[in-house]
Design a protein that fits this description.
Layout (H helix, E strand, L loop, with lengths): L1 H20 L1 H20 L3 H31 L5 H38 L2
């Protein structure tokens, strides 16, 4: 149990570091909170809420991986290298793809009830 708690503490430390140092992670977190508030206010189903939560968690998880890739490459060496750029760009691209998917999920799930609320249709 002690090992588990220790590894959990390391994981929380990684999340805290990323939230503290990465502007994009704070943006993703703010959007996740806004989506949760909107989903609750609009009364989405449990399944829809689960899809939204999974989409938001995926974006934030990939932002953590992106940060790990960037820090690892920076640790290896400060000199620019085409392979380092490719690795960093690919990690950032993974976040972008997840964020686009999450935005689409949010639009499909939250769009119709929000439209009805705002425009009565």
């Amino acid at each position: 149990m002690r090992r588990f708690l220790r590894s959990f503490r390391f994981a929380v430390s990684g999340v805290a570091y990323t939230v503290r140092t990465q502007r994009n992670m704070r943006i993703h977190l703010a959007f996740a909170v806004a989506v949760i508030v909107a989903a609750t206010a609009l009364g989405v189903s449990a399944l829809e809420g689960a899809v939204l939560a999974l989409a938001a968690a995926s974006v934030m998880a990939l932002e953590l991986v992106n940060t790990a890739v960037e820090r690892t490459i920076d640790r290896i060496g400060p000199d620019p290298h085409p392979l380092a750029k490719t690795a960093k760009d690919a990690a950032a691209g993974a976040v972008l793809v997840a964020a686009a998917g999450a935005a689409l999920a949010g639009l499909f799930i939250l769009g119709p009830p929000l439209w009805r609320l705002l425009f009565g249709g």
